[in-house]
Amino acid sequence: VITLLDISFRRNAEQALRENEAHLRSVVDGVTEYAIIRTDTKGTIQTWNLGAERVFGYSAKQAIGENVSLIFTPEDREAGVHEEEIRRATKDGRALDERWHIRKDGTRFYVSGVLSPIGDPPTGFVKMARDLTKRKEAEEKLRIAQERLEEVVAERTRELAASNEALRIEIGERIQTERARMRLLRRLIFAQEDELADVL
What we know:
By secondary structure, this protein is α+β, with helices and mostly antiparallel strands.
């Protein structure tokens, strides 16, 4: 009886585990805005959700069994960025990053992601990522617009400074002209007084 109960309990537990795994899998697969990728400790892709298919362009069949470096740019692969990400996640409990990645068709796009270890010590990793290209492009447009605005302000400031300098010079010349006119007027008055004095 104990053996039968033990076997029944184990079967029920295994069935519950399978049902939980199936439920979790359906939840993960239903997330299409986020790429969710599970790898082993060496970075070999083990699961690849529909969001990953949408974001990176590879089907699960094409991605599973490949190294996660597949989604990194050639220069990041060469620099070992994906391996460094695994080291940071192992050491710190997670590794956040925002960087350019590459799709199956070769296009680059900006991704925000986090890599988290599974278990302690890690038996694998889960990477969640989302496409932030539109936000990055908007930030870049804003940066360019700000730079242009600063250039326009600098140019206007230079023009205003030049106008102010020209005005200062003109005012200085007018003051000099007025002073000269006053000197001439005084001379004229003195000359007239002298003439008048001579006549009288």
